[in-house]
Amino acid sequence: MQILFINNDGSGFADQIEISEGMTVSRLFQERLPHGRPQDYLIRVNRQPTTADAVLREGDRVSITPTKIEGAAHITADTIPILHWKGALWEPDNVLTVSICSTS
């Protein structure tokens, strides 16, 4: 039987693939991403979160998207530099954003 398999790992791709009758989400993951750990991915069937033991059916749409990007750094307020640009001071607003503050 065929399903649409969308792999968003790396450069990503989507393709119709042939799978055996009774294949589970867990087995598909092991076959297609043997290097990965399921807890590091968001796995959906027909755009809905699923369980590892869900049995796939003809025409299902399976997407696998990493939730952790290798090499990404965790940013904290301590690691964001304070920048000066045309007299305005950039300061951390919280750990993920910055805002422009007046210097007067």
Descriptive notes:
The structure is a single chain. With 104 residues, the protein is mostly beta strands. The chain contains one helix and eight strands, in the order E-E-H-E-E-E-E-E-E. The chain has one helix at residues 25-32; strands at 2-7, 13-18, 41-45, 48-49, 61-66, 83-85, 88-92, 98-101. The strands form two sheets. Strands 2-1-5-3-4 form a five-stranded mixed β-sheet, with no helix packed on it. A three-stranded antiparallel β-sheet has the order 6-7-8, with no helix packed on it. The longest helix is centred in the first third of the chain and has 8 residues, at 25-32. The relative contact order is 0.18. The model has no long low-confidence stretch (mean pLDDT 80).
Please outline what is shown here.
Helices cover 8% and strands 36% of the residues.
How would you name the oligomeric state of the polypeptide chains in this document?
single chain
Largest sheet: 5 strands, mixed
Radius of gyration: 21 Å
Order of helices and strands: EEHEEEEEE
Shape: elongated
- Structural class of the secondary elements? mainly beta
Number of strands: 8
Count, helices: 1
Measured by DSSP, the beta-strand proportion falls in 35-45%
Low-confidence stretches: none
Measured between the Cα atoms of the first and last residue, the distance is 69 Å
What share of the residues lie within helices? under 10%
